[in-house]
């Protein structure tokens, strides 16, 4: 038996399972309100954030939309100098939301530190006011990052029929303390999750491939050319090709993805598409993000 109850007009929610918050007003858009009437709600989760409480309603429904097919493919190399760079040398630069807000964060943290009294329980009301203000700064950065990732992922999937990107092991990469803050701020994982999400609802191929040697192997002849992270140009001594390091990696990533799909890539087009399994060789796979999960609609309380 559920421990909550919606009002008849879905404008309030009451908790009856001992959750001491009691009854709350519910604010949501018209589409969410229609879904609350129409669909079966499997679970309600209340999340507390710096600017209020949010209710997440979980529906068992599969979202599908009709996508526009362009016949284009893209291979994406993820990085820090350029957030993404494709095989055509098109680059996207990350706005660095955390870096731009560091002064505001430091100022709010200093104010919070001045209000803190060691050993005092509970802390003063002024302390909690400053704590909430600091939380809102962090929340704004989080929402900026998420909004940017959603818009970029939507644009990439809408413009291409096949999207291939490298499956980076972020947990291992942040062990480099010189780059950890920049890697965390870039939030590659969040971006790739939304790539898979839009690929699923528009029925487009979003493929992940292993990042091994994509920056070292020559995209023209296949020779492995060793280079340091500071070397930004790929120069092959065998075939004399000289291109941007990230562009070379994007071409290799795209070629790997095409092999997973059983298709051939030639000058931004692909040949006959064949069936491909979920898992390919050497760690390549077709991303199927949010498979089997519940759709979530959020409302502000």
What string, H for helix and E for strand, traces the elements in order?
EEEHEEEEEHHHEHHHEEEHEEEE
Total domain count: 2
Kindly, what is the distance between the CA atoms of the first and last residues, rounded to a whole number of angstroms?
A: 23 Å
Based on secondary structure, the structural category is alpha+beta
Instruction: State the helix count.
Output: 8
Main beta-sheet annotation = 6 strands, mixed
Computed CA radius of gyration, to the nearest angstrom: 24 Å
Number of beta strands: 16
Q: What are the segments in which pLDDT stays under 50 over at least 5 consecutive residues?
A: 268-300
Mean pLDDT value = 83
Helix share, percent: 25-40%
Physical arrangement of strands within the biggest beta sheet: 8-7-6-9-10-15
Shape: flat
Proportion in β-strands: 15-25%
Short summary:
The chain has 301 residues and is an alpha+beta fold. The chain is 35% helix and 22% strand.
Descriptive notes:
This protein is α+β, with helices and mostly antiparallel strands and 301 residues long. It has two domains: 4-59, no CATH class; 73-95 and 144-292, no CATH class. Helices cover 35% and strands 22% of the residues. It is built from eight helices and 16 strands. The strands form five sheets. It has a six-stranded mixed beta sheet with strand order 8-7-6-9-10-15. A three-stranded antiparallel beta sheet has the order 1-2-3, with no helix packed on it. A three-stranded antiparallel beta sheet has the order 4-5-16. α4 (125-159) crosses α7 (188-201). It is flat and about 70 Å long. The two termini are 23 Å apart. Residues 268-300 have low confidence and may be disordered.
């Amino acid at each position: 038996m559920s421990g909550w109850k919606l009002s008849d007009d879905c404008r309030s929610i009451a908790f009856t399972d001992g959750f001491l918050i009691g009854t709350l007003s519910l604010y949501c858009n018209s589409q969410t309100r229609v879904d609350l009437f129409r669909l079966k709600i499997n679970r309600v989760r209340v999340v507390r954030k710096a600017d209020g409480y949010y209710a997440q309603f979980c529906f068992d429904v599969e979202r599908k939309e009709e996508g526009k097919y362009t016949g284009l493919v893209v291979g994406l190399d993820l990085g820090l100098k350029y957030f993404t760079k494709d095989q055509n040398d098109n680059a996207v630069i990350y706005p660095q939301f955390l870096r731009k807000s560091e002064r505001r964060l430091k100022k709010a943290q200093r104010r919070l530190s001045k209000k803190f009294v060691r050993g005092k329980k509970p802390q003063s009301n002024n302390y909690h006011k400053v704590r909430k203000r600091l939380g809102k700064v962090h929340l704004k950065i989080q929402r900026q990052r998420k909004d940017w990732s959603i818009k970029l992922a939507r644009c990439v999937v809408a413009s291409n029929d096949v999207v291939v990107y490298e499956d980076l092991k972020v947990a291992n990469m942040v062990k480099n303390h010189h780059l950890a803050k920049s890697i965390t701020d870039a939030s590659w994982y969040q971006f790739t999750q939304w790539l898979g999400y839009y690929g699923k609802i528009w029925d487009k191929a979003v493929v992940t491939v292993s990042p091994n040697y994509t920056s070292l192997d020559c995209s023209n002849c296949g020779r492995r050319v060793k280079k340091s992270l500071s070397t930004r140009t790929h120069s092959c001594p065998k075939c004399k090709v000289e291109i941007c390091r990230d562009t070379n990696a994007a071409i290799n990533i795209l070629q790997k993805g095409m092999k997973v799909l059983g298709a051939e890539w030639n000058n931004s087009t692909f040949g006959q598409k064949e069936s491909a399994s979920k898992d390919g060789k050497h760690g390549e796979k077709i991303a199927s993000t949010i498979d089997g999960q519940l759709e979530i609609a959020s409302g502000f309380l």
